[in-house]
């Protein structure tokens, strides 16, 4: 049972962050030039099919959801983000679902814990993410029964 919970935890990881580096993101909002939105989406789309790996942050070894976000934003927008969904939520700003734009974050409560999963909105009600259950980076719909029930909100760095 404990192994199953670790596997399902997926994106709630703080893997790769030391205590001192986690604190460096506290009370800091990152703002990225809006012209980078398409670069973020294209970089994310280029990673479709990359395998899932708990704690992963590289296309060579695999991604968990926050490692995927971290990698995409570092490579597409030169932004250094934490490898933790809740910390990414802290450094981003809320955006209403009706105002979602390409490159914004969508957050989900998948473990009875706020901000336990996230993805990158790519338009038309779809987002790209690294879910543990799918085994690879994929596109999902916000309206899918699983994600619609667990949708927690959207945030942006743009």
TrEMBL record:
The keyword Hydrolase applies. Residues 34-158 form the NlpC/P60 domain. One of its GO terms (molecular function) is cysteine-type peptidase activity. PROSITE patterns: NLPC_P60. Keywords: Hydrolase, Protease, Thiol protease. GO terms for biological process: proteolysis. InterPro entries: NLP_P60_dom (IPR000064), Papain-like_cys_pep_sf (IPR038765), Peptidase_C40 (IPR051202). It holds the Pfam family NLPC_P60. Belongs to the peptidase C40 family. This is NlpC/P60 family protein. It comes from Paralcaligenes ureilyticus. The lineage of its organism: Bacteria, Pseudomonadati, Pseudomonadota, Betaproteobacteria, Burkholderiales.
